[in-house]
Fold this protein.
Amino acid sequence: MRIDRQKLKTIKRALILGRRAAPGEVWLLLILSLLLGVAPIVILYIGKIVIDEVTRLAGGQTEGLLAHLGSLLPPAILAFVALIFIMDTVETVRGLQIDNFRDRAGGEARRQLLAKVAGFEDISIFENPEALNTLQLAEKGVDHFWRLVTAIGRMLIGLFAFVPAFVLTAAIAWWVPLVLFLTALPAVIVVGSVEEFSWDVEQSQAENVRYMKLYERILLTEIYAKEVRLFRLPDFFLGHWNSRFRTMFRAMKAARSRGTWMIVGWSVIGALGAAVPYVFVIDGALRGVYTLGDLALFAGLIFQVRRSLELMIFEGGDMYQAVQGVGPFFAVLDMESELSSEPVPPDSMGSTTAGIRFSHVSFSYPGSDRAVLEGIYLTIKPGETIALVGENGAGKTTLTKLLCRLYDPNQGEITWDGKDIRSLDIDQLRDRIAVVCQDYAHFPVTARENIGFGDLSKMDQDATLLTMAREAGLDKAVEQLPAGLDTPLGTMLEGGTDLSGGEWQRLAIARALLRTPKAQLMILDEPTAAVDPQSEHEVLETLRRLARGRMALIVTHRMPLARSADRIFVLQSGRIVEEGSHKDLMASKAVYYTMFTRQASSYL
Ligand SMILES: Nc1ncnc2c1ncn2[C@@H]1O[C@H](COP(=O)(O)OP(=O)(O)OP(=O)(O)O)[C@@H](O)[C@H]1O
Ligand SMILES: [Mg+2]
């Protein structure tokens, strides 16, 4: 067990977070801990008074308690009853306060984690297994966080019980507290190392736990439900889950049993440490050095010192484990986005005058050496619509992701009106882009919200939202929804319904359209892949109309859509191999020509 500066800092941060999130609970718990710690010692002392008083009064007489109402016995009994009552009440209230603390402080910690991860401008944390493992540990870290604070609370109970009992044992003999303390020390080391290797196991199992969660998601969520059944995959995923679970459980069990044996071994020393002063006190009582009350008090104190030491050691171990467990939580809170954004004055982006330029842009995904884009030169002039064509995996979507700054290029630069987009405010940049992603989201919220996400300020403007729905060819579908715009979309929602594949794509289009008045660039990645050919024409007309006067980048496999662009770029294995208008490219009879004629002939 090593408590270094890092861990002390973590403890401090956890305490500060706990106190800020639930100040009332923290103070109350502190006071209750003090009461719970000290009460048993007072009870022991009352016990001593009662025994001594009874021994004194009982000598050779036969009268009961009623004859001795003037003695110390009645107040002692009253104090005893009051203390028992207080302890029981305090224990119950403390339990409730711990639950409150867990909910409030744990909730606040989880909120901070959610806000942090959602606030990352890039998405690399979701694509990097190592970062995902840390995220998985950070999620568990939220529980460790409140465990840490409650363990500290219980350690305090131990401490409050320990200090008076420890001091009082010196009344037996000066060496008694020393023996009790020294024989408890080995347990500290053992508990520390037990916690150390349980943490090693927890860390080494983070990946297994994450995979188990992944399989659980496949088995328990709607998006996989159909194919899991149609391809009869439950056993496959259950099998994988099971084998990960078994590996994890074996490792945890081994760590636990190793720990148990070590603790049992060292407890022998602790027991001997308690036995020596105990025998000493019994001997003293027989010789008449101590009264019977002293015997009861001292025996109780020895037991109390042991119990509170144990409490502190085990809670200390728990705290130690929790400190390690909470580490990844703070590590995620401290994570920085891989994108750098220098703060800029709010009006630094005006209306576009010089357009967008990719100069010598190369890119490979984090953690991979393969260049997905290489030496890209590409321009979009103000008011121009360009099309990007190329086979699957050519890098088209990747290029759009760079433009939205979900990633930054490894080489080269992308400029907007001559300014490197890395130097622009990322929110302003994204406000200027209306995008229909290739894998657009099916947000499980209402139709209103699904469209309104395009521009949150227009969420309540029914007429505008309905116009966008109409432009995207979604008006009929919205009319048929039981509660119109306010119908929840997604069958897992109360009163929810689902849309067809093409309707979801139109919804994504409507969402992007809502942004167009502000947006100066439209990025459409396969915007009509799921739309039926009969109505594709109308949707394309709308998109073309809206693209007019602003810049548009259309990624498509549909040649008629590419054809209507001002200029076409052909991407092959991450490089631009051809560029020009439809007419030019047809005339040069190369890659585009082949793609175009092949697609046209397949319709004949
Ligand atoms: N997040 C990612 N991490 C690592 N590699 C990726 C990632 N996304 C895509 N790739 C790889 O980058 C290459 C280009 O992918 P991209 O999605 O840009 O292709 P595309 O041209 O849009 O293809 P499609 O026509 O199928 O949509 C692919 O080979 C793919 O394997
Ligand atoms: Mg793509």
In short: The radius of gyration is 36 Å. The chain has 19 helices and ten strands. Residues 396-397, 438, 525 surround magnesium ion (ligand 2) (CB under 6 Å). The mean pLDDT is 89.
